[in-house]
Amino acid sequence: MMSYLWLLVIGFIIAFILAFSVGANDVANSFGTAVGSGVVTLRQACILATIFETVGSVLLGAKVSETIRQGIIDVRMYNGSEHVLMAGSISAMCGSAVWQLAASFLKLPISGTHCIVGATIGFSMVARGPQGVKWMELLRIVSSWFLSPVLSGIMSGFLFYFVRKFILNKADPVPNGLRALPVFYAITMGINLFSIMFTGAPLLGFDRVPWWGTLCISLGCAFVTALVVWFLVCPRLKKKIKRETTAAPCETPLMEKSLNGTVGSMVITDPHSGRSHTIHKDSGLYKDLLHKLHMAKVGDCIGDSDTEERPIRRNNSYTSYTMAIYGIQGDPKYKDLDGGLQRRSRVDSYSSYSSAVTSGSTVQDGSVTQEAGRDLTVEEDELEVDQPAVSLLFQFLQILTACFGSFAHGGNDVSNAIGPLVALWLLYESGSVVSNSPTPIWLLLYGGVGICTGLWVWGRRVIQTMGKDLTPITPSSGFSIELASAITVVVASNIGLPVSTTHCKVGSVVAVGWLRSRKSVDWHLFRNIFIAWFVTVPISGLISAAIMALFTHVIL
């Protein structure tokens, strides 16, 4: 095999680019919602994800790499023509990397697993024709486009409904929140431990533990977690909430700027006329505005460093809404766009609100236009808000679920980046297509490093889609999204249903966003994401097939 050393070298370079693209796209699933709800900054998310993705890839990655390596095509067809399989592995990595980088550029979260499966089928069709492709695998993937988001959406919808009914909607949500906290921690710990152990990480010896042993250990750890939270965490949280809620209400300059000091009402200055509008405490809008002020820091977490230099465009609900609150003029270049926004019928709660405020300015003080009044009464559908106390309850839980998600993701998705490289390396080392050698740890680590590089360099694009553009997220809704999608992935994969982490997370984000407010989900963006899922397998397959054809007819 020495004559094919150059194929191995090219393989290592392309595998790093593929790992980079997985980091830039798929890692956003783990931390997108946590960054979106303002629980962690983008920088903190990158640090946490780097640690957990790398550890997960090394401890859990070996098992899943086997499936990617041998589960999609019959490798025994390449006996005697090992160099063709090597070229095929390189083609598969190219096809997958190109499409994932394109999707990251377009800020669309897609499934890394589907990419590599499509690319593997693509090269196999060129090299050996349709025979040898396991078509049932492809059928399972197609079914997962619909199964994943629907199952996960239903699950997170139920969880969020429970959280809202028993905690968020109470006059004082703290007592119920504190009672539920140990249960939430126990479920999070139990589900994730079971997932990690059931995967059977050979490095930790979990592959030798029977399923009932795994179940007992998971339940035991969940119970211990619940006790620790009830006796140690809850009392401290209770004190912290008491301390913070008795502190001065106007703590941030943004709030001081927007609250007029009279308890129970808020004054908004109209950006066009300079007139003020009072919003009273009992209107749902008051809560919504307070929440947006509280969340003002989220923009800083996600936004690029050069946002100050860019003109403000009112091209989405967030910016138009915030401009109305803070009295910021739009950029003159986008005047038509601004006017169009006000002429448009209500698209969602934010733009309708800003149009209500601006149209209200044409009347004399003391009276309210019918249109503005009507708009605000229809505005029963506005986004619910987490009270500061509730945010405190769910903050650490959301970080915990995100870290677990990242750990499991590292194990699962490093295989998408490294599966073909493992095949290449073992082919080169043993000269046989059916090598039974275990996946080398250093290869998994190599994949982990590539994933983390991609996350740091380009991860923010998809994080913004998952955490901010699709629908606004709060700590309570973010926790519901993460826990429910984790449960769905664990249950479905152990039953044998094909699900994708990305699809589950997107389904959950949309379902919870829709439950919180019918108008807060960006359906155009969701449509684009769904189309991207739909074309993932064919596009990565076609790119891979083209490169394989080049290898077959020109290079080899």
From TrEMBL:
<keyword id="KW-0769">Symport</keyword>
<feature type="transmembrane region" description="Helical">
    <location>
        <begin position="211"/>
        <end position="233"/>
    </location>
</feature>
<feature type="transmembrane region" description="Helical">
    <location>
        <begin position="138"/>
        <end position="163"/>
    </location>
</feature>
<keyword id="KW-0812">Transmembrane</keyword>
<comment type="similarity">
    <text>Belongs to the inorganic phosphate transporter (PiT) (TC 2.A.20) family.</text>
</comment>
<keyword id="KW-0813">Transport</keyword>
<keyword id="KW-0472">Membrane</keyword>
<keyword id="KW-1133">Transmembrane helix</keyword>
<feature type="transmembrane region" description="Helical">
    <location>
        <begin position="525"/>
        <end position="551"/>
    </location>
</feature>
<keyword id="KW-0732">Signal</keyword>
<keyword id="KW-0592">Phosphate transport</keyword>
<feature type="transmembrane region" description="Helical">
    <location>
        <begin position="441"/>
        <end position="458"/>
    </location>
</feature>
<protein>
    <recommendedName>
        <fullName>Phosphate transporter</fullName>
    </recommendedName>
</protein>
<dbReference type="GO" id="GO:0005315">
    <property type="term" value="F:phosphate transmembrane transporter activity"/>
</dbReference>
<dbReference type="GO" id="GO:0035435">
    <property type="term" value="P:phosphate ion transmembrane transport"/>
</dbReference>
<feature type="transmembrane region" description="Helical">
    <location>
        <begin position="183"/>
        <end position="204"/>
    </location>
</feature>
<dbReference type="GO" id="GO:0015293">
    <property type="term" value="F:symporter activity"/>
</dbReference>
<comment type="function">
    <text>Sodium-phosphate symporter.</text>
</comment>
<feature type="transmembrane region" description="Helical">
    <location>
        <begin position="83"/>
        <end position="102"/>
    </location>
</feature>
<dbReference type="Pfam" id="PF01384">
    <property type="entry name" value="PHO4"/>
</dbReference>
<dbReference type="GO" id="GO:0016020">
    <property type="term" value="C:membrane"/>
</dbReference>
<dbReference type="InterPro" id="IPR001204">
    <property type="entry name" value="Phos_transporter"/>
</dbReference>
<feature type="signal peptide">
    <location>
        <begin position="1"/>
        <end position="19"/>
    </location>
</feature>
<feature type="transmembrane region" description="Helical">
    <location>
        <begin position="40"/>
        <end position="62"/>
    </location>
</feature>
